[in-house]
Amino acid sequence: MTMKKIIFIIAISFVSLLTNAQSNNNKGALLEAKLNFIKEKTKMSQEKFEKFKPLYTSYAKEMRQLKQQKKNTPKIKNIQTDTLSEKNATIILNQQVELMNKIKATKEKYFAQFRTILTDKEMILMLQAEAEIRKKIKQEIQNR
Question: Which residues, 6+ apart, have CB-to-CB distance to 112 below 8 Å?
Fold first, then answer.
């Protein structure tokens, strides 16, 4: 079986688990599926995975919280500037910058820690796996 077929089967399994996890509000199952997909994509040893898993779980939790904050902040493209005061414009922009800085700081903190476990190549593979997962999620949502 070729690597592409294996990745495809894992991705389909992940999307299936994702669908079930979302419908049951089971974030734990979703995270497990994501972790397993990353493990397969990076060809991570079990020993490395045992070190990686709690760190990634913590990272995913913090990033999920930041993404929730992002959802709760006004989107620049949707702001009605006709009635927007300068004071409110400043507040909105400061919120945006603060959130971007928090996301950047969180990624920097965890990426430094990931690098104590993973090689740089494995880090790139992890990021590619995350991008692939996001793409599959987007496709699944669009297909609904």
Answer: none
Task: Enter the tokens of residue 15.
Answer: 């999307």
Cα–Cα–Cα angle for 61, 121, 113, rounded to 5 degrees: 40
- Kindly report the pTM of this predicted structure: 0.75
Which range marks the domain in which residue 136 is found?
A: 1-44+120-144
Regarding whether 49 and 36 lie in a shared domain, the answer is no
C-alpha distances (whole Å) from 82 to each of 54, 78, 138 are: 48, 12, 33
Looking at 23-37, 74-88, 89-103, which range is the least confident one?
23-37
Whether 54 and 34 map to the same domain: the answer is no
Q: Are residues 62 and 38 in the same domain?
A: no
